[in-house]
Amino acid sequence: MPTVSPTPITPPHEHVVTAREALEPLYERLELHTESTLLSAAMAAGWPAEEATRALAALRLQDALNILCRANRGPGISMHSPRAE
What sign does the dihedral 72-74-79-82 (CA atoms) show? Predict the structure, then answer.
């Protein structure tokens, strides 16, 4: 039976980069991949690129507002509310 040597885990105080710095390139690649997949799907369904881009921007804005509201423990702002228009 093969043996597996344990992988050493570097404690946080010995890291050269922060977790954010380590995750940021992957996050950006995933964001670009997600955006292109969503826009491709919208255009394949017949939506104009400009309208699909605006819809994606609105979804991102809504997501950012929801995150901020959760962080501040305040009420969410809906894109369907009069304040968001």
Answer: negative
